[in-house]
Amino acid sequence: MIDEPLSIAEHEDAVADKRAGAVVSFAGVVRDHDGGRSVTELEYVGHPTAEDVLTAIAAEFAARPEVHAVAVSHRIGLLGIGDVALACAVSTSHRAAAFTLCAELVDEVKKRLPIWKRQVFTDGEEEWVDCP
């Protein structure tokens, strides 16, 4: 969990491995709409255990035999449209495994990470969403 901008390139660099034939990364980006409503900004607030949960998820994926390395981060604090909220990268020997594992990693983070999102809409209304 970090309150500064996330870099996909840094996540890709973190999983670089000379055994890897594939590095797949993902950027979860703040979009300007949700549920048919225009969004101006988001704020993410993590539970005190969120960092431990994220570390555990990364370790679980890193322990898989086909994985060479994993890097994953989730942003907290106020984010604007276009900011990266979730960044991850996975390196494996082959592309199919890298694509599959990166998608599974994103799904697992979204499923288990104790984080809440406050959406601010253009009409001034706000909404809190429980992410897991």
Biggest sheet descriptor: 5 strands, antiparallel
Average pLDDT reading: 96
Indicate the percent of residues in helices.
Answer: 25-40%
Poorly predicted tracts of residues: none
Number of helices: 3
Strand content: 35-45%
Radius of gyration: 15 Å
What is the H-and-E element order? HEEEHEEEHEE
How many strand elements?
8
Structural class: alpha+beta
Shape: elongated
Report the end-to-end length measured between terminal Cα atoms. 15 Å
Q: Could you explain how this protein is built, in words?
A:
By secondary structure, this protein is of the alpha+beta class. It is about 30% helix and about 40% strand. The protein is built from 3 helices and 8 strands, in the order H-E-E-E-H-E-E-E-H-E-E. The chain has helices spanning about 10-15, 50-60, 95-110, and strands at about 20-30, 35, 35-45, 65-75, 75-80, 85-90, 115-120, 125-130. Strands 2, 3, 5, 7 and 8 form a 5-stranded antiparallel sheet that branches. It has a 3-stranded antiparallel sheet with strand order 1-6-4, sandwiched between helices. Helix 2 (about 50-60) runs antiparallel to helix 3 (about 95-110). The longest helix has 18 residues, at about 95-110. The two termini are about 15 Å apart. The model has no long low-confidence stretch (mean pLDDT about 95).
